[in-house]
Input
Amino acid sequence: MIEQIKTYLLDLQADICTQLETVDGKASFIKDKWVRPDGKGSGLTRVLTDGKVFERAGVNYSIVHGDNMPAAATELRPKLAGCRFSALGVSLVIHAHNPYVPTSHANVRFFLAEKDNEDPVWWFGGGFDLTPYYGFDEDCVLWHQNAKTACAPFGDQVYARYKKWCDDYFYIKHRDEQRGIGGLFFDDVNEDFLGDFDTCFAFMRSVGDTYIKAYRPIVERRKDIEYGEREKQFQLYRRGRYVEFNLVYDRGTIFGLQTNGRSESILMSLPPQVTWSYQYQPKANTPEAKLYDHYLKPQDWVDAN
Output
């Protein structure tokens, strides 16, 4: 199972990087291969910095092995405490220069837990989500239409379930705000498809392959819109919410740190520039206020038009 998944993930990483380089038109991804000091893991971190379009784009592949499943994974699966484990996946975060280009995140991953004299336990997880700073209804519709299309072959209720999970997951509790407009979030994909590995793997591939199909057209629509200091400062302020979520709530970040993962790769998701302002409130009837009033609220984007 792991060799099949590894081959797919590395191909996915390469394809996404190629497409992002094409959109950027200036910078290229550097490749940083690494091996854990204890030998229990390795990866390929690919980062594009200071391009024409992208301020930072990171697309990471990693595989990690351990003798004791960390708390971030056993919190919802207490029976797996003490299991040996293998975890592999691709995780990416894209931050653009232009405030009109949303930040995007995607992750697809596989876990295998093993304990002597017991059957192995495996599952897939992942998803993708979009964090605009200035919203456009047509971008939200396109994003969610692609998400629904990715889920369609696997059941009529799959998109609705994983969209709601995404809305619930990417919620910043201490701010009482959504991080963005959502997309898909799924975990424990095994039981959902009755333990059929081929179907579960196909679903993960469908989500992984759909990410760039959904994101690239939005970048190309927005990358050349003119902006000024006001828009840039609002982008930097809203990036602070992204940092807060990733450091406080994100399962992937917590899992990586709990397994003594490579911090440079784990924290690559953080934006290069960010600001915090004390008690900032957008002025009424501005595009900044509309982000809060309209876009940062879970809603049915597929049927919005």
User: Anything to note?
Assistant: The first helix runs from residue 2 to 24. The CA atoms of residues 146 and 213 lie 8 Å apart.
